[in-house]
UniProtKB/TrEMBL annotation:
Keyword Heme: yes
Signal peptide: 1-27
Keyword entries, A-Z: Electron transport, Heme, Iron, Metal-binding, Signal, Transport
Pfam annotation, one family: Cytochrom_C
Keyword Electron transport included in the entry's annotation: yes
Cytochrome c domain location: 25-111
SUPFAM superfamilies (UniProt xref): Cytochrome c
Provenance organism: Sphaerotilus uruguayifluvii
PROSITE patterns, sorted: CYTC (PS51007)
Protein name: Cytochrome c
């Protein structure tokens, strides 16, 4: 059976392939955090508006669900974990799931 036999399917397949072809290569965690705007409020070793990455790493050290919990915090935003200043939600349009996971894993390795 040829794909051309199904015009709607072939259009979807072509669109999907073109979409995949135009996705940027996965960024390094630092590049992803810069692009997403994380570094406007955070730094690796000092508090800016939000907590330092080293402080986040220390707070979540040894917690097996730390990556999932922090990803959820980034997605939903909020305040209270490190003080009263709220962090706005950061959706997949700002940082995709793979880059967010890599960024959180990188943050948790900060010392």
């Amino acid at each position: 059976m040829r794909l051309a036999s199904f015009p709607a399917l072939s259009s979807l397949a072509v669109a999907a392939l073109l979409g995949l072809a135009t996705l940027p290569a996965a960024a390094s965690p630092d590049e992803a955090m810069n692009k997403a705007g994380c570094m406007a409020c955070h730094a690796k070793d000092k508090k800016v508006v939000g907590p330092a990455f080293k402080d986040i790493a220390a707070k979540y050290k040894g917690q097996p669900d730390a990556v999932a919990r922090l990803m959820d915090k980034v997605r939903k935003g909020g305040s209270g974990s490190f003080g009263p200043i709220p962090m706005s939600p950061n959706g997949p349009d700002k940082i995709n799931d793979a880059d967010l996971k890599a960024a959180v894993e990188s943050i948790l390795k900060t010392s």
